[in-house]
Amino acid sequence: ETGVTQTPRHLVMGMTNKKSLKCEQHLGHNAMYWYKQSAKKPLELMFVYNFKEQTENNSVPSRFSPECPNSSHLFLHLHTLQPEDSALYLCASSQAGTSGGAPNEQFFGPGTRLTVL
Amino acid sequence: AQSVSQHNHHVILSEAASLELGCNYSYGGTVNLFWYVQYPGQHLQLLLKYFSGDPLVKGIKGFEAEFIKSKFSFNLRKPSVQWSDTAEYFCAVNPLRFGNEKLTFGTGTRLTIIP
Known about the structure:
The complex is a heterodimer of chains A (117) and B (115). With 117 residues, chain A is an all-beta fold. Helices cover 0% and strands 55% of the residues of chain A. In chain A, the strands form two sheets. In chain A, strands 2, 4, 5, 6, 9, 10 and 11 form a seven-stranded mixed sheet that branches. In chain A, β5 (44-50) and β6 (53-57) form a beta hairpin. The N and C termini of chain A lie far apart (32 Å). With 115 residues, chain B is mostly beta strands. In chain B, a hairpin with a 5-residue loop joins β7 (56-58) and β8. Chain B starts with a strand and ends with a strand. Chain A binds chain B through residues 3-4, 31, 33, 40-43, 45, 48, 50, 55-56, 90, 92, 94, 96-98, 101-111, and chain B through 4, 30, 32, 34, 36, 42-46, 49-51, 90, 92, 94, 96, 99-108.
């Protein structure tokens, strides 16, 4: 496996279910990200982990709970979601903290298409 | 609110036409700028990026973009498009005062190339 992988690729869940999204990066990066992609809206940054520490929580509701056990794995735990949470959830990774403000290219996974009924 | 604007939501062109997609941002200070592309059924991938130096940057597949600081713009261009350029294109900005992790994306432009 190379790059950034995400599982599952598709998920349908009810509002009372609990599920988790998984992301794994094989690039040796130190930062990982969760984004939400909804139709006709910009990609929304949800969470950033840098060296396994959460450095950004972009006002995300508590029904989304991230976990980063090591620099290669990132989870998004979901519980009591709402239908408006249906979207494509993208994971990305990068080598953050490069000196001199050099561009921090983020590599994206294929996403998990989530439908909340 | 600080943001990234892509005014063209859907662009339809014939093959061999020239392309220019607009991107404007509202952040002050030093920024890193990116264009990402998402081909149908594929991952988001980097097309090109601007860090410093020559404001005209070249990317993959014949794309280029020009950073015009006075206009807060980073427009994407290609002189002659191909059917395989059909995709969604996203502009993204990293305001460096937030560190180099935070990327803010535009809403994207869907490009359809007619053979």
